[in-house]
Amino acid sequence: MITVIDNNIIFFKKKNSFKEEKRKLFKNTFNFFISIYLNGKIKTVGYELVINATLIFIKINSSKALSIIRHSCAHLLAHSLINIYKDIKLSVGPVIKNGFYYDFFSNVKLSFSDLKKIEKKMFGLTKKQFEIIRVNVNKDAANILFKHNKYKKEIIDNISENSIISIYEQDDFSDLCRGPHLPNVSFLKFFKLIKISGAYWKNNNKNEMLYRIYGTAWESKRNLHKYVNKINNLKECDHRVLGKHLNLFDFYKHSPGVVFWNKNGWNIYTSIKEFIKKTLEKFNYFEVNTPVLTGSFLFKKSGHIDKFIDNMFICNIKNNINVLKPMNCPCHIELFNNFYKKSYKNLPFRIAEFGMCFRNELSGSLHGLMRLKNFTQDDGHIFCSDYHLENEIINFIHLLKNVYYKFGFNIFKLVLSKKPIDISDNLDIWYKAEKILENVIKKLKINYSVSNDGAFYGPKLEFSLRDKFNRIWQCGTIQVDFFTAKNLNAKYVDHKGFLQTPIILHRAILGSIERFIGILIENGSGYLPLCLTPIHFILIYISNKYLFYVKNIYNIIKNKYNVTIYFGNERLEYKIKHCILKKIPYIIIIGNKEYTSKTITLRDNKTNFVKNISLKNFLKEFNFKGD
């Protein structure tokens, strides 16, 4: 028997499929169901039922259907590609957040303009109502079917000899896939192709470059339009476009993964850095600086090379192996070992660095300020004993909140990342560290979730922000490390005169300063928090006869605000439009009315609100420079 979600019980022959039983149970609503949960696992139409199974039917308009819809849409994209471009070789097409992509090789040069033609073909195929069929074959049969596709053959070669391989077919198209899929391509109604880019086969830059087409698919027209509108808004707020337009920074093809700062952009960077410096001083940190290029021995001994060598820049200089540092912690331990009094009386010992770090990121993963090869990590380490741990973690969370609040954010999400599943050594130490972090969270009454993504040297707390597009950005972290100090022989003398190994708290506030600037730009659609804005006010005058009054206002407010004068003979409408495009938050307009009444007209460009105000009241109302 099988138990259905509404507790109906039916008896059937052993070989009955879900498709047959679905027809019996729901004769009038057959076409609304696309798949099942069979004993807790999602299965495709046609999957053979087992005796004593529990079924939950999935409707096409259910949120649970999204991954199935997107999976089938990836196959529909691939089916369309081979119909249009006969020479292509398909590789893989997984489901990703909010959509899917498919990677493929083609000798034909493709661009964004080709997506419209491909999408049209996809819609054309859905009208033909091809049934999607799952076929199970052995490895030999799969190799014969895909004998002309080296990417599929490489996937098949990595499957064990006696495995059953599932293949999904629709008309003359076949693809390797675990599934599940929709029962018919006609269910695919609400999708859009959104991007084409390059990607290395298996994300390995030693392999050949493939095309990658991204798409999105939804269960309703409303949700598709909602997501497409969000994408369009994000394009308008893209920090890479705004950074260039506002003359903040730029990127160049000859130097991928590094940023070139212009004056205003560098002022934003240094303003953030200076604020954090002052905050760190209040929390009793010492700022340090360590070399960019170090001997590899330090990172070998700390364990980082064994774990991260593929993401590190290794330099052979006159037969000496050096690394461009990917993180600061081994260097900070070296400082602790060689320069500071190592007594329990000096603990907790807090050091911080705005460290220039290098990571050998794949070119396909680079994304403006959000993902760089060379970035600044606002890194810090606290050397302490068991006794200090809870208070130090609590103090760091207070520090974190101060910084986030300054820039218009609150902690939106907190994750306690516990021991990774593959770690089986030193379990007592791991559980002890996890308990300490859990106690802190409970003391502060912060909601949190749990994952198994701890670092190789200890558990951590991860702090995330949410922007206006509801995107989550993990920025801050604090990690409890019982192991690295021991690996690098860091010691202190306890109150009884015995040598002890300190516990290290690794912590970062923003993570990467560059990335945080990217988040700020996109969150404000180019408008930055006022404490970072290069120009707070711009003075616009309607006629040269008011210039003396304009300059008088400028001299009064220049010491309190970042202010400039728009010198130009353009029409007022043009001047206002120019200032809006340059994301200057406020315009002060001076004309005859303002001149005669000794007032100003203030325009808020973010809200389009305009008001006339006396200079005295204006100075009282606006007080944000240096906030």
UniProtKB/TrEMBL annotation:
One of its GO terms (cellular component) is cytoplasm. One of its GO terms (biological process) is threonyl-tRNA aminoacylation. Residues 265-529 form the Aminoacyl-transfer RNA synthetases class-II family profile domain. It is found in: Cytoplasm. Its EC number is 6.1.1.3. It catalyses: tRNA(Thr) + L-threonine + ATP = L-threonyl-tRNA(Thr) + AMP + diphosphate + H(+). One of its GO terms (molecular function) is tRNA binding. It comes from the Bacteria. It is an enzyme of class 6 (ligase). Binds 1 zinc ion per subunit. Its cofactor is Zn(2+). Keywords: Aminoacyl-tRNA synthetase, ATP-binding, Cytoplasm, Ligase, Metal-binding, Nucleotide-binding, Protein biosynthesis, RNA-binding, tRNA-binding, Zinc. Zn(2+) binds at C329, H381, H506. SUPFAM superfamilies: Class II aaRS ABD-related (SSF52954), Class II aaRS and biotin synthetases (SSF55681), ThrRS/AlaRS common domain (SSF55186). Residues 238-529 are annotated as: Catalytic. Pfam families: HGTP_anticodon, tRNA-synt_2b, tRNA_SAD. SMART domains: tRNA_SAD (SM00863). InterPro entries: aa-tRNA-synt_IIb (IPR002314), aa-tRNA-synth_II (IPR006195), aa-tRNA-synth_II/BPL/LPL (IPR045864), Anticodon-bd (IPR004154), Anticodon-bd_dom_sf (IPR036621), Thr-tRNA-ligase_IIa (IPR002320), Thr/Ala-tRNA-synth_IIc_edit (IPR018163), tRNA_SAD (IPR012947). Belongs to the class-II aminoacyl-tRNA synthetase family. Homodimer. This is Threonine--tRNA ligase. It comes from Candidatus Azoamicus ciliaticola.
